[in-house]
Design brief:
The complex is a heterodimer of chains A (271) and B (366). With 271 residues, chain A is an all-alpha fold. Helix content of chain A is 69%, strand content 1%. In chain B, a hairpin with a 7-residue loop joins β10 and β11. The chains are: A mainly alpha (271), B alpha+beta (366).
Chain lengths: 271, 366
């Protein structure tokens, strides 16, 4: 299977890069910073700061939830933008795209492999935040029954499962942005431009989501359901938002995947 | 050249397919099996024979009253006295569970937060996840306690109230069948006979099988979107899991014990209520009624609401009132799509579902 071998080498290159590890470390630093700050300060009054911040001192697992909440608007899109924006434009910028295309693997397959690499990173990023958050929270604070938004309590094992479920929700949420990044990456030979454009896309979408004048547009924005991961913290779980989010991201994947395919297969590769 | 064209084909097809899918999904779904035709009386009967059911469902509520949106984020959000007032503005989603007359749970799903009302037997709990507070009350045995279930208007309660208010002033008809939460439903339409009211129509969708009201839609004159609508988007008539009605306050939550309304207290309250009622004057009939509150009732009510430190804050009742009203000759007007409230400079308040001119006429008549 040349496709699988190509994916293996793509992932090997991605996760051998110092940049990838630096980004994952920066993401891991968010829960550590939050947990240490809460540990060192006096009790946080409820209702101040990001949601769930006051719960961390009662239950360490909330360090992961709070960190994900903080990372969603900017940090996660930033890292996805760097990885997805680099996929094709990075190779073009280094002058290696020509050699990749000289191999018998077609352009379509190369695009799929590149996208799969970006998606693997989109999965790794939120799980890093969740697991590091759960670890540092468990180390600094007691871990016990977790209070959900509905006021019901669940055991620590089930709470950990929900934490991982939230990370999975965020991984799905980032698929649309990865597809946008892939398309941006096919447009240019300058990787930084594709990265910046992808991040700008994420920010503009969130700004538009905050404007009540654009209410008709809101359900169509790929960032619209990013914060709905809180529905997984209700009892019983609201699965509707998970399904609706998956459908929305699938739509973005189809549109921007098709655009990227059209652009990449018709492009003159000179470098 | 043809090959280039082929490569761009998926990029053009995919958005077209998505658009077609969305259009097909948004077409008004017509009920599969047409319901047997019924007269308005028969539909009312169908509602009346419907008894305390067991169900679980999701309610969607939208308001288009023309009130300013309350701050949803930041410090002023959902502070004490405005938390429930906030339900009148903007859209909300709530999950409702009910098992018989004694078990009920309403979950108002806010962004990153939730407000819960749980009734289990005689135990009544309120929970707000935003500030992690809970309130508890024990309902007097036997008595029907209205609060808790009235906090979020479920369609059957709203319909019962509206039907009670229904009299000769309205034209009642049965509209075309609709589909609510995937169920075929009758649509009972009330149209005020008077043209001097702001109300255009009220439609209640009634489940064709069980007679359970599934949704209420209130339309204002000159507004195409409903001014207020609440309807189920999902409904299951099976009894919900019993664990849903079990509630104990989470560790770390602030629990407030609410005083139990005993007979002496309610007696005194009724007396006070009667005294207040004596001062409230109503002029006009039916939909055109204008209610007059005497001078001073607002001044008395305002400080009673909310703690002093909340006064003047972005979410406080006083600042909201100032924000929501506009100056008119002789006073200030709180204008919404369905109700106009005229607050005169001398303190008298006139309210009704009528245009401003009628309120001013009622004020001038005294």
């Amino acid at each position: 299977m040349p496709g699988l071998r190509l994916l293996g080498s793509e992932l090997g290159v991605l996760f051998r890069r110092r940049r990838t590890w630096a980004m994952l470390l920066a993401l891991a630093a968010i829960p550590v910073l939050i947990a240490v700050a809460v540990r060192l300060s006096s009790a946080v009054p409820p209702g101040r700061g990001p949601a769930f911040l006051d719960r961390i001192s009662q239950n360490g697992l909330f360090a992961g939830v709070t960190a994900m909440l903080v990372a969603v608007p900017l940090f996660l899109p930033l890292t996805i933008g760097v990885v997805a924006g680099d996929t094709v434009a990075g190779e073009a910028g280094l002058g290696t795209l020509r050699y990749l295309l000289a191999a018998p693997a077609g352009r379509g397959r190369l695009l799929v492999v590149k996208f799969a690499g970006a998606v693997v990173f989109a999965v790794a990023a939120p799980f890093t935040v969740a697991l590091v958050g759960a670890g540092i929270g468990a180390a600094l604070f007691p871990v016990g029954p977790v209070t959900l938004l509905s006021g019901d309590s669940i055991g620590a094992a089930e709470a950990l499962a929900r934490l991982l479920l939230i990370a999975a929700y965020l991984a799905v949420s980032l698929v649309g942005l990865s597809a946008i990044g892939l398309f941006m990456s096919t447009l240019t030979d300058v990787p930084v431009g594709a990265m910046a454009a992808t991040v700008v896309f994420a920010v503009v979408s969130q700004v538009a989501d905050a404007l009540p004048q654009l209410e008709w547009l809101h359900p169509w924005l790929f960032t619209h359901r990013w914060l709905d991961f809180a529905d997984l913290l209700r009892q019983p779980i609201v699965w509707d938002s998970f399904a609706a989010n998956a459908l929305l991201q699938g739509g973005y994947l189809a549109v921007f995947g098709a655009l990227a395919y059209a652009r990449f297969t018709t492009k003159d590769v000179l470098s | 050249m043809t090959r280039t064209w082929l490569r761009w084909l998926p990029a053009a097809t995919v958005p077209a397919v998505i658009a077609a899918g969305v259009l097909a999904g948004s077409l008004p779904a017509s009920a599969g099996d047409p319901l047997p035709a019924k007269s308005p009386e028969q539909v009312l009967e169908l509602i009346a024979q419907h008894r305390d059911p067991s169900f679980s469902g999701t309610l969607e509520q939208t308001s288009n009253l023309g009130l300013p949106d309350l701050p949803k984020t930041g410090p002023g959000s959902a502070s004490g006295d405005t938390a429930w007032l906030e339900l009148l503005t903007g859209p909300h989603t709530a999950r409702v569970y009910r098992d018989g007359a004694d078990n009920a749970r309403v979950q108002v799903l806010d962004r990153l937060a939730e407000r819960d009302v749980i009734r289990h037997g005689d135990q009544l709990w309120f929970y707000n996840s935003k500030d992690n507070t809970a309130a508890h009350a024990v309902l007097p045995a036997g008595g029907h306690h209205p609060s808790g279930q009235d906090s979020v208007p479920t369609p059957d309660r709203l319909a019962a109230k509206l039907l009670a208010a229904l009299d000769r002033s309205s034209n009642v008809s049965v509209g075309t069948d609709v589909e609510v939460a995937g169920r075929a439903a009758y649509q009972l339409v009330l149209t005020p006979r008077s043209s001097a009211t702001l109300l255009a129509s009220i439609s209640i969708s009634v489940d064709g099988q069980s007679g359970m009201p599934l949704g209420v839609e209130v339309k204002a004159r000159g507004q195409s979107d409903p001014a207020f609508s609440v309807a189920f988007t999902k409904l299951s008539l099976r009894a919900p899991d019993a664990a849903i009605f079990q509630f104990s306050p989470p560790p770390g939550a602030t629990v407030k014990e609410l005083p139990v309304p005993d007979h002496k207290a309610t007696g005194a309250k009724e007396k006070r209520g009667a005294a207040a009622k004596a001062k409230v004057k109503v002029s006009g009939t039916g939909w055109e009624s204008v209610v007059e509150l005497p001078a001073g009732s607002l001044a008395k009510a305002a400080p009673a609401k909310g703690a002093p430190e909340q006064q003047g804050g972005p979410g406080s009742a006083a600042s909201l009132l100032a924000q929501a009203t506009v100056p008119v000759p002789g006073g200030r007007l709180l204008s919404t799509a369905l109700v106009n409230v005229l607050i005169l400079d001398d303190g008298r308040i006139f309210a009704g579902s009528v245009p401003l001119e009628r309120l001013q006429a009622a004020a001038a008549a005294r």
